[in-house]
Amino acid sequence: MKPSTLIKFFPVVLAIIIIFANLQLARAEVVQIERDFQPDPLTLSGKSGGFEKSNCGNISATPNQVLEVAESLPYLRLTVESKGKPTLLIESPEGRFCVLGDNYSQEKPEISGYWQAGKYSLYIGDLSEQQNDYTISISQQKMPQK
Fold first, then answer.
1. Which residue among 29, 57, 59, 121 is least enclosed by CB atoms within 10 Å?
2. Rounded to whole angstroms, what are the CA distances from 32 to 37, 38, 65, 70, 120?
3. How far apart are CA 59 and CA 131, in angstroms?
4. Which residue from 56, 69, 68 is spatially nearest to 124, judged by alpha carbons?
């Protein structure tokens, strides 16, 4: 190959490297959840929605949050708060499932109960096809603290 040909391909190769590096940086931080964690509730935040269409609204291609539950917990509650119509897609040791808000939860996706030890990938989606700021509240308390 001639040096002039290599110079023409250099910007394309550089762009591919930059895109790949940005995708690697977009990976979610792993949050360790242990019995009696503090503070309780633990809050995490980010941007909901994305460009991947799913049965749980529009989600991002990678998890928004990853929880690593160190040991099985008899009770854990997750609540998502966001504008729009937020959803919560969870990939867990038990499988993949979607949580939608309803009238009882004031349109906030919420799930509670027994959580076995393992990795939980959380995708914060949106049914309104928009992206909004969100907050996830994680608690071992049965009733939300005011």
1. 29
2. 9, 11, 11, 7, 10
3. 9
4. 56
d(CA 32, CA 41): 14
Amino acid identity of residue 82, one-letter, is: S
Structure tokens at 78: 């997750």
Average pLDDT, the chain: 84
The whole-angstrom separation of Cα 136 and Cα 117 is: 19
Closest by Cα among 109, 62, 72 to 94: 72
Query: pTM for this one?
Result: 0.78
Burial 55-79 (b: 16+ CB within 10 A, else e): ebbbbbeebbbbbebeeebeebbbb
Dihedral pair phi/psi, residue 45, rounded to 5°: -140, 165
Nearest to 87 by CA among 61, 55, 62: 55
